[in-house]
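User: Can you predict the 3D structure of MBL fold metallo-hydrolase? Sequence below.
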Amino acid sequence: MKLTVLGCSGSVPGPDSPASSYLVSAAGFNLVLDLGSGALGALQRYLSVPEIGAIGLSHLHPDHCMDLCGLYVAAKYSPSSPFPRIPVFGPPGTAGRMALAYDLPEDPGMEEELEFHTWQEIQQIGPFTVRTTPMVHPVPAYAIRVEYGNKSLAYSGDTGPNDGLIELARGADLLLCEAALRDDDPNNPPDLHMTPADAGEHAKRAGVKRLVITHVPPWFNRDTQGQGARRTYSGDVQVAAPDMTFDI
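Assistant: Sure. Here are the predicted structure tokens for MBL fold metallo-hydrolase:
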């Protein structure tokens, strides 16, 4: 598998990065994990819209899904349209939420361009086996594990600390984990996001081979967040940046 970071800015797009979006490719199939604000433009540096095999949404906060509106427009009005509907996997109610976001009637909403599916515990998406488990966040949110052959990638989405992420990421070759809060900040809200130390601790307990810190808001320093994760995880720690690639 190849992982390409399209956007990694936490909570809002930043001056040098769109919000969350990650491209996972193998065997000629392209799976996009999240399509947050600004990410569709970055995606088109790598793929044309018809080359998207499927999209998986960790949750329905705008910094993880809102560029689905732009994708709908491209799929509907591009000179090359119509082309086969793009499968979109997400939490319950994704189709209705996205129709509302673009002020469309719920029927048909975006259903003529996009094919919506609700996450199951396990599903086959192209060549990938994809597993999900609920996370701790103010809205329904899921961590996602993508497996291809004997390789695996785990993505936290947005979450507070929880054992479910540790179990989903168990033994993964790479854990892409959010660290949107600062370590040792007494005002950190509970059950919302993780600190770098939390991310490192989860990686250590899950026994992952590599940790990539992501979802750092533009008001924090990405390198500082990476240093925080290294205090609790002794393995390979890298910090996501736009256009970074990882071979898994």
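The chain has one domain: 2-247. DSSP finds seven helices and 14 strands in the chain.
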